[in-house]
Amino acid sequence: xxxxxxxxxxxxxxxxxxxxxxxxxxxxxxxxxxxxxxFWGYVIPGAGRPMPTRVRAVSPSxxxxxxxDVATTTTGIGxxxxxxVSGDVKDGCPAVGDLVGFSLLYRAIDEDVSGLSPAxxxxxxxxxLHLTRPLSGD
Length: 138
Fold this sequence. Notes:
This protein has helices at residues 2-5, 10-18, and strands at residues 26-27, 36-44, 54-58, 64-69, 71-72, 78-85, 99-105, 112-113, 119-120, 126-128, 131-132. The chain has 138 residues and is mainly beta. β3 (54-58) and β4 form a beta hairpin.
């Protein structure tokens, strides 16, 4: 029975953690180390829209530096958590202070909605960032 407790899913633990955070919080995290930053938050697809299946973090040069599945809650809100790597780990990824862009992925890997509010890359920290589908460009 104790072995089953050890296999709690990351989405469940994440859901418990996100419930205690606010959208402007920047908190230290075990997931963020010196060359990585963590991002997590809610995903709200917009009225009449399907829930995205993934969130992708993209550097200013267009390199994918992190991605996460979206877990849908019973209330219809999605949750994501991801580690974004720096240019020290992967060429083309952000340096300290660069803005990281985010995309919502729906079906095929390249079908996405970009243009979400970017966030600064802060290695060693975790940032709560709630993502909603933009109204324009539908």
